[in-house]
Amino acid sequence: MKRNIDQLAIFGGTPLFDEPLHVGSPNLPPRDQLYSRIDRILDNRWLTNNGEMVQEFERRICELLGVRHCIATVNGTAGIEIAIRAAGLSGEIIVPSFTFVATAHAVEWLGLEAVFCDIDPATHNLDPSRVEELITDRTAAIMGVHVWGRPCDLDALAEIAARRRLHLLYDAAHAFGCSSEGGRHLGNFGDAEVFSFHATKFVNCFEGGAVVTNDDDYAERMRLARNFGFCGKDNVIALGINAKLSEVCAAMGLCSMDMMEDVIAANERNYADYRELLGGVPGIRFIDYDPGIRNNFQYAVAEVDADAFGLTRDELVTLLDAERIIARRYFYPGCHQLAPYADRRDWSLPHTEAVANCVVSLPNGLQTGADDVARVAGLISFLQSHADAVTNRLAELAR
Questions:
Q1: Which residues, in sequence order, are CB contacts of 272 under 8 Å at separation 6+?
Q2: SS3 172
Q3: What are 185-198's pLDDT values in tens digits?
Q4: Structural domain that includes position 371
Q5: 249 and 195, same structural domain?
């Protein structure tokens, strides 16, 4: 561990890690298991168009979540798009600004308007009271995001949507394998929920996604939208795009699902270690996961109080990056401050901006071991205890 600030990498010292330690390094299955499935794909000569791997992947997801329908897609963004399109939505969709920009982009790409709503600073999810304030005669739907896999206020959003006759969708990109307070898996709420199986997710398809729903008619419309509107070999009955998941991506997803409990266990151990090792460090507060609710623990997320810690979140991220610890500022800035949206209206989202300016996500997953966590935590503790000296040296560098 660093013994004095001259040994910090940003000031010319040797980085703490020889290779970058990433937040989202892929969790990889045993290669022989993946290669075995790929051999079957090649033997079948069925590479896409709803082959046996995609069918098995969709079936496994339905069984795990207890949902009626799963529509696997090329990625999560496409999943959101076909969910919106198949619902026949137009006008405005209320979304949080504290989310990955794909949530808003999918809305706008289809010609609708994303209306950004503030979050509850305690949960980092949509604030239902603010949702109610934003509803107009142009509002078509509410789209919640289960940030960090922690469920939105499901009852409150469902009540608003029903009373105001709005569609209710969920971006559940973080939330595969997570549950609600009643123990029911996320995926069973609203009209539909959309998962991401991007390479950085704890279950991944290299690149992929899925929409799940318990509405039979809606599911059929989404299947049509996913595959050019084809019903049968040469009968096109609806507008559609090519949002199909390939067989090799589904094979990766199946192998990834086989190991998901091991990944969750590793994630939870790392999260617990971070909390224990950094629990006494002023200005570092890890988000809480309700022990009564199942979570995948993919995100080891802390809020940095700059006054108490002595360094800003951004300074901490810069210092960690120099040590080859690739922490992330999720989600910075809020979507409403990004170029496509910033000048559209005078957004008032104080909680979103405050959280976006203090949150940091630390490395987790199978590639992050107990020793790695200890070294990261030790460095963060060292930085806090030498914050004044580090701040002065950073100021010198900036001159």
A1: none
A2: coil
A3: 999 999 999 999 99
A4: 5-27+260-327+363-398
A5: yes
